[in-house]
Each structure stands twice: as C-alpha cells, then as structure tokens.
Write a structure and sequence with these properties.
The protein has 2 domains: 107 residues, Urease, subunit C, domain 1 (Roll), CATH 2.30.40; 301 residues, TIM Barrel. Helix content is 35%, strand content 20%. Helix 5 runs parallel beside helix 6, helix 6 runs parallel beside helix 7 and helix 11 crosses helix 12. The longest helix has 24 residues. The N terminus is likely disordered.
C-alpha cells in the first residue's frame, strides 16, 4: 500500500498535467473585443501593433495579436485606426464647487447642494477627457466629495473612480481655510471640519475624516498661493504634527498627502512619512534627495502657473495671489526638472479646479518640456499614479485582470503628446463614454 507521501506526490503530478484554468478556475468568457492599431504598454514602456483587448464585463481577460480569429459572438469596438492607452488619472483635483475666480468669498456664496451638482458636471467633463480615475485632494465644505464618489460608484452619475480627502486638515487661518473675510465674518462649521492646532487635534480630525468616508488625509503643511494671507514658503504644521496624522491614518490603513510649497515644510512632511508632496514649488536639493531616499511621490502642478498668470491677470484676481504665483511658477518647474533627473517618484496631478475640469491633459506637454520623455509622462498619468494610490492591481495599465479603462487617440501620441488633450474615445469599465 503506498505511503501518504507517495500519494501526495501522485496527486501533485496529476494536477501538473491539468490545464492551468482547470486547476484555478477558467477565466470569464470574453463578451467584447477592442481592436487597436497601436497599444501603449506602460508596464514595460513599449509600443505594440495590431493588438486585440478582450473584455468580460468591466475587466480585461486577454490581450492577443489581431491575427488570431475572434468568435462571431463578440461585440467588437474597432479602434484599429487609433493609439490605445490605459485610462488616465489625475491625483490632484478639486471637483467640488466653482472654478477658481477673483472672488475669494465665492465658496461661501454657494450651497452644499449646488456644490455637489457642479461637482457632478465637473466629474463628467473629467471622464470625457480620458481621466477615468482621480484623487480629489480636498474641498472647503466637508464630505461633499464623499457623496459625489458614492453616487458615481452606484452608477447614478458618470465620472471617474474617485479617492477623496473629505476636507483639508489645516491650522486656523491656514492654507486650507477660507480667508480674506472681514474679522467679524463667521465661517460655517462645515468649512472648518479639518481645523487643528496641535498634535492631539490633528489625530482627532484624522479619525473624524476617516469615519466620514475619507480615503486618505490631505494636510496643508505650508501656506498656499491661492489662500489670502498665507505664505507659500512658510511651514504651518510641525514635523511632529504631520507625523501624528501619518501615525493615526496608518491605524486605519490610510495614507497622508501634504500640500507643501516651502523647502522646510516639504522636508518636514517627508520625514514625517507622508505618501506624496503636492506642489513642491520651492523644493531644494536636500528635499529632492530626501524624497528619492524615502520613495516619496512628487505631484507638481506645473501647468497651473501659466493659467493663473493669464486668466488671473485678465480677470483681476487679487494682486497678492498673482504675486505669489509669479514667485513660485518658475521655481516649481526647475524643481520638477531636478526631481525627474534625480529619479524621484513622479505622479501626475494638475490642481484641476483652479482651471476648468477636462483640461487636465494640458499638463502632459509641460511634463515633457520640463524633463520627462513622452513615455514617462504617460506612465506618470497611468501606472505611476495607480501605484501612488495603491490601486495598481485594478487600474493604471492595459493588463489582464484590470478594469477596462481605455483611451484612444488618433495619431502617434509619443510624437505628439498633446493628442491626449482631446482623446477620440474613452471607456470606463468597458462602457463607451464617447
């Protein structure tokens, strides 16, 4: 009679003879085929010709050469004249409420309902522009972003997959507050849900925001260009206070990102353990080296400065804001160039909401101008962003098992990256958006 060890070996041998799908379960049968002319493989940084992407429901189940015959039962999307890329993502957006204007009191002149409705319009514009995922990094009125995310998830609204911050964590009168009002104006409580002035208050705000539905925490570590009365280069939270947020968020499996313009604030946030630095306008060489060492992501909105200079001047935005923009724009772009050269993790984030939603793709050409190759810029807006958001098993590349989020452009996007400013077609989860 065979020993138990012999029986086990025979059983393993039997399993080895079976097809892989028999052992682990067959992949779902494809219901849709997407024919591509050129496919951008961002995982490998290569270009493939004449490929077919097979979908089952909202996921990719296979990628094969176009010469392989297809079952007659498949629905076929013929993009054989297009270059096809993964759905793009933007990890620094503000979908809720009005676009930035000269009126610093504008956030107080809208209702929560109106902010949400406008957010729905912005979400659809973002999706149509090829951005199938976003990280929304803060809203003045707390938790409206959570509501928008939930209604997109239910399918009631069309928009990108959203990760949301719930509200800004900011000091009193800091870069995440509505400022510039008369001293006796009382700012509503739902605009101040994230205000904290010491480490204990920071921990409390983090817990409250996560309980309210936040996917991550956004800390305003320095002053802001667009917040009256604050100085971009000045630190507003200490390293200890930022670390308190990081430590508290980690208890719930959440990350912290830091709005940080000034060099000292950037370095304090990196040492405290934040996942990414937003803006990074006045970063110095020490900060770049520290980010490289720690693996911290840089999200630099390097298109934004030109928009603020042009539109802000034409619309007579406050002189203080225009001057701070002048002081940070060129420095930010030079810091970005140095960070790219140093090998810092670069993510794609635009600060959409300062400029109109749907124009997110305009930043890609700036990223190429300031140091990235076209492929690197595309990777920043796809697989790199997915890794930053810890979503790379679901989004970020055209790969088996991931969502069928696809963008098609008419032409060679590596020769002309501006083609991504207005894609020809978009799918989210296999659903044709346009």
């Amino acid at each position: 009679m065979p020993t138990s060890r012999t029986s086990c070996l025979r059983l393993l041998a039997l399993f080895a003879l079976l097809p892989f799908h028999t052992v682990l379960g067959a992949a779902p049968a494809a219901d849709t085929a997407v024919r591509t002319g050129t496919l951008i493989d961002v995982d490998a940084g290569r270009v493939l010709s004449q490929q077919v992407i097979l979908l089952a429901g909202d996921r990719i189940v296979a990628i094969q050469d176009a010469s392989v015959p297809l079952p007659a039962t498949l629905r076929v999307i013929d993009w054989s004249r297009y270059t096809v890329l993964p759905g793009l993502s933007d990890v620094h957006t503000h979908l809720i409420g009005d676009i930035q204007s000269a009126n610093v009191a504008a956030p107080l002149m809208s209702t929560g309902a109106r902010d949400a409705l406008i957010g729905a319009i912005h979400a659809e514009a973002t999706l149509k522009a090829g951005f199938t995922s976003v990280r929304d990094v803060g809203t003045y009125r707390a938790f409206v972003d959570v509501a928008l995310r939930e209604q997109i998830n239910t399918g009631l609204l069309r928009g990108p997959r959203m990760m949301v911050a719930g509200a800004y964590v900011t000091i009193s009168g800091g870069g995440g507050e509505v400022t510039g009002m008369a001293p006796d104006v009382i700012i509503p409580a739902d605009f101040r849900r994230g205000v904290a002035n010491n480490a204990d208050e920071v921990r409390a705000r983090v817990r409250e925001l996560i309980a309210g539905g936040a996917d991550f925490i956004k800390m305003i570590a320095t002053g802001a260009v667009l917040t009256m009365g604050t100085t971009p280069g000045a630190a507003e939270f200490s390293e200890k206070e930022i670390h308190a947020a990081v430590e508290e968020a980690q208890k719930y499996g959440k990350d912290v990102t830091a709005h940080a313009h000034g060099a000292d604030g950037i370095k304090a946030a990196v040492r405290a353990g934040v996942r990414s630095i937003e803006h990074g306008s006045l970063i110095d060489d020490e900060g770049i080296a520290l980010m490289k060492k720690r693996g911290t992501w840089l999200v630099a909105d390097i298109y934004n400065g030109d928009y603020i200079a042009e539109v802000g001047s034409a619309e007579h935005w406050p002189a203080e804001i225009l001057e701070k923009n002048r002081q940070t724009t060129d420095a930010q772009r030079e810091g970005f160039r140095k960070a790219v050269k140093a090998g810092v993790n670069i993510a794609f984030g635009t600060d959409a909401g300062v400029f109109p939603h749907g124009d997110n793709g305009k930043q890609l050409a700036y990223m190429v101008r300031y140091g990235q190759t076209p492929m690197q810029a595309i990777q920043s807006a796809t697989i790199s962003n997915a890794r930053l958001m810890r979503k790379d098993t679901d989004i970020g590349s055209i790969a088996v098992g991931k969502y069928a989020d696809l963008v098609a452009v008419d032409g060679d996007v590596l020769a002309n990256i501006r083609l991504l400013e207005r894609p020809s077609a978009v799918t989210k989860g296999g659903v044709l958006i346009q």
